[in-house]
Amino acid sequence: MKVLYFTATGNNLYIAKQLGGEYYSIPKLLKENQLEIEAEKIGIVFPVFYSGVPKVVEEFLNKSNLKSKYIFVIGSYGSFSWGTSRHLLEIAERNNIKISYYNEILMVDNYLPVFEMNRQLKKEPGKKIEENLNIIRKDIVEERNYIKMNAAFAKIIRASQMKQYDNHFDSNFKVNSNCNGCKVCEKVCPVDNIKVKGKPVFHDNCEHCLACIHNCPQTAISLKKEKSLARFRNQNVTLNEIINANN
Ligand SMILES: Cc1cc2nc3c(=O)[nH]c(=O)nc-3n(C[C@H](O)[C@H](O)[C@H](O)COP(=O)(O)O)c2cc1C
Predict the structure, then answer these.
(1) H or E segment at 54?
(2) 8 A C-beta contact, residue 181 and residue 199
(3) β-strands 194-197, 199-202: how paired?
(4) Among protein residues, the one whose CA lies closest to atom 20 of ligand 1
(5) pLDDT for the residue 6
(6) Are 104 and 84 spatial neighbours (Cβ–Cβ below 8 Å)?
(7) With CB atoms 3.0 to 4.6 Å apart as the test, which of 17, 35, 49, 201 could cross-link to 54 if both were Cys?
(8) How far apart, in whole angstroms, are the C-alpha atoms of residue 235 and residue 159?
(9) Phi and psi, residue 80, nearest 5°
């Protein structure tokens, strides 16, 4: 089994590891042009972004050739998944990908413009992550056929949230004097959108994933509008693992 994942703050790498099998980073597969994937089972694991599939995962699904009799997909989200299943199925249909199983799992919400991280961390026990992961793991072992569908009206929410991608997100970042030019932000960026020249310079291809902000060892990067300076990385994942995944 091959599990292909995208992560910014570790939740999806943790899920990928917990499912068993070999795991591969989607941004890395794209950068290395490794687009022919064959396995008895193939999994795609991603964070829900704006009620849908992140751009980098969509790009991978558009370009790759997945050969497997059982393709499963897991979307991890922090609060509301809304139109994610419909967006995923649109992408799959367009690319002739047969998805046998799609499920979602609630994890810690890392979206700083809306959520205060310490409050989100307090909600973690109630999300019953281990229990839900066990259910999903069992489903995959048994090759269950199941698609968790979001309500049809959620497409509207997805369409309105998608507009976030039109903004020049790079102009939302600010860097304070704690920055020591360590380049962690450059290395955790999944789409090579940051170049450190003394301090980070943000270009115009941002994935919005917030990896640079959450993983900055100096807490030097922030958004102009965010709820608090608290940061998050999944407790079972190290900074080096995220660097290895996205660099
Ligand atoms: C740009 C962005 C958009 C997000 N949109 C949603 C959303 O629409 N619904 C939701 O429940 N969580 C949303 N989240 C939260 C993440 O999906 C969630 O925290 C995920 O588990 C993070 O995975 P990671 O740690 O592997 O990066 C969003 C996060 C980011 C950074």
Answers:
(1) none
(2) yes
(3) antiparallel
(4) 47
(5) 98
(6) yes
(7) 49
(8) 33
(9) -135, 125
Counting atoms of ligand 1 from 1, which one is nearest the CA of 107?
A: 21
Span from the CA of 72 to the centroid of ligand 1 (angstroms): 19
Top mutation candidate among 25, 49, 188, 226 for ligand 1, by most atoms within 8 Å of CB: 49
| 97, amino acid identity | I
Supply 243's token pair.
């660097």
pLDDT digits (tens, 9 = 90+) for 219-233: 999 999 888 889 999
Q: What is the DSSP letter of 164?
A: G
Q: What is the pLDDT averaged over residues 234-243? A: 98
- Does the beta carbon of 209 lie inside 6 Å of ligand 1? yes
Q: Whose CA is closest to 228, among 121, 117, 122?
A: 117
- What gap in Å lies between CA 138 and CA 233, rounded to an integer? 26
Q: Is the CB–ligand 1 distance for residue 210 below 6 Å? A: yes
CA 11 – CA 29 distance, rounded (Å): 19
Is 27 touching ligand 1 by the criterion CB < 6 Å? no
- How far is ligand 1, taken at its centre, from the CA of residue 208, in Å? 10
Residue by residue, DSSP assigns 182-243 as --HHHHH-TT--EEEESEEEE-S------HHHHH-TT--EEESS-S-S-----TTS-HHHHH
- pLDDT tens, position by position, 36-89: 999 999 999 999 999 999 999 999 999 999 999 999 999 999 999 988 999 999
- The rounded Å distance from CA 9 to ligand 1 centre is 9
